[in-house]
Amino acid sequence: MTSQPETTSGEPRKLTVRRAPKYVPFMIAGALTGVVTAAIFTFMAPPSEEFETSSIFGFFTVLLLIPGATLGAVMALILDRQGRRRSKTLLAAPLPDDHSNAEAETA
């Protein structure tokens, strides 16, 4: 990612480079963690004559899916903040165009 707009002049530019996490995979991982936690809670619960096991699993899944996805998003935000602190500023010099070299050779 760059923080400066591109210019067409031949002068060097300062660019900020950093690593940034993708939020969707973190949210999916958090949601899957919520589903796994729901399965663990389902099998830890004593058997009930009133509810089937699949109903209990569905209830826990609905209950833990959104908090898991939220936890994944919070983790991505924390990693994004750390990435901003570790960002580096580099000096980038443009390379000469092939067209300008070809014109200089023919002249």
UniProtKB/TrEMBL annotation:
Lineage top rank: taxon: Bacteria
InterPro entries reported in the protein's UniProt record: MFS_trans_sf
Protein name: Potassium transporter Trk
